[in-house]
Design a protein that fits this description.
Low-confidence stretches of chain A: none
CATH architecture of chain B: Orthogonal Bundle
Radius of gyration of chain B: 10 Å
Strand content of chain A: under 5%
Oligomer: heterodimer
Number of domains of chain B: 1
Structural class of chain B: mainly alpha
Protein name (chain B): Cro/Cl family transcriptional regulator
Number of domains of chain A: 2
Keywords (chain B): DNA-binding
Largest sheet of chain B: 2 strands, antiparallel
InterPro entries (chain B): Cro/C1-type_HTH, Lambda_DNA-bd_dom_sf
Organism (chain B): Shewanella frigidimarina
Order of helices and strands of chain A: HHHH
Shape of chain B: globular
Strand order of the largest sheet of chain B: 1-2
Distance between the termini of chain A: 31 Å
Distance between the termini of chain B: 8 Å
Mean pLDDT of chain A: 93
Number of helices of chain B: 4
Largest interface: A-B, 15 and 15 residues
CATH topology of chain B: 434 Repressor (Amino-terminal Domain)
Number of strands of chain B: 2
CATH superfamily of chain B: lambda repressor-like DNA-binding domains
Helix content of chain A: over 70%
GO molecular function (chain B): DNA binding
C-alpha cells in the first residue's frame, strides 16, 4: 500500500469516527429528552421511566466509547489541542461549579444551582479551548 | 527544538499537505512543526527521518 493510500485511510477513518461520535451524541441527546419529558407528556408508569433512564445511560456509555475512539484516531497535535481544551473545561467547570454551588447553599442567589448551567459553562469553555488551540498552532 | 523539515520538504518539491499525507498527520501539524510551534513525538520524528532517508539528528536539533 502506498503512503498516500495509507493517509487516505487515516483521513477516512477519522471521518468515520467523527460521524460515529455525532450519531452516538445525537442518540444520547434524544434519549435524554425522552427520559426527561416522557414521564410528563407521554407515559406515567415508573417502569417505563426507569427503562428510559437506563437507555439514556447506555447511550451515554456508547458516546464515551465513540469519543475515545475518535480521540485516539487523531494525530498528536490534534490530541494535544483536545487535551488542553478538555483540561480547561474540567478546571473551569470544577471551580465555577463549586463557587456556583456555594452561592446557592449560602442563599446568595435566589434561584437553585442547576446542573444544566454547569454543562453549558463546560461546553462553552471546551469550545473556546478548541478555538484557542487551533489558533495557537495555526 | 529546531528542525530542517521545511528545507527538506522544499528539496523534495512537496507541499505541506503532501508531506502530511506521507506522515499520516494533518497539514496543520506539519505547519506547526515547521514553524517550531510544536515538537513532534519520537515516533513521528523517526517517521520523518525514514521518509527523508536521513538520521534523525540531521533533521531535528536540540536548541539547548
Amino acid at each position: 500500500m502506498s503512503p498516500l493510500t495509507q493517509n487516505q485511510d487515516w483521513k477516512n477513518t477519522n471521518k468515520h469516527n467523527t460521524t460515529r461520535l455525532a450519531k452516538w451524541t445525537l442518540a444520547w441527546v434524544i434519549s435524554m429528552a425522552v427520559a426527561n419529558f416522557g414521564p410528563q407528556f407521554i407515559w406515567q408508569q415508573d417502569l417505563i421511566t426507569i427503562m428510559a433512564i437506563g437507555t439514556n445511560f447506555m447511550m451515554g456509555i456508547g458516546m464515551i466509547l465513540a469519543n475515545r475512539r475518535q480521540l485516539l484516531g487523531l494525530d498528536e497535535l490534534q490530541q494535544k489541542i483536545q487535551l488542553n481544551a478538555m483540561g480547561l473545561s474540567l478546571g473551569v467547570g470544577l471551580i465555577v461549579g463549586l463557587s456556583y454551588s456555594n452561592l446557592d447553599t449560602t442563599n446568595l442567589i435566589a434561584s437553585h444551582a442547576e446542573i444544566s448551567h454547569l454543562v453549558i459553562i463546560m461546553g462553552l469553555t471546551y469550545l473556546v479551548g478548541i478555538i484557542l488551540g487551533h489558533r495557537k498552532y495555526q | 527544538m529546531k528542525n530542517r523539515l521545511k528545507v527538506l520538504r522544499a528539496e523534495q518539491d512537496l507541499t505541506q499537505a503532501q508531506l502530511a499525507d506521507l506522515l499520516d498527520v494533518s497539514r496543520q501539524t506539519v505547519n506547526a512543526i515547521e514553524t517550531g510551534k510544536f515538537d513532534p513525538s519520537l515516533p513521528l520524528a523517526f517517521k520523518a527521518a525514514r521518509l527523508f532517508k536521513l538520521p534523525i539528528e540531521s533533521i531535528f536539533e536540540d536548541e539547548q
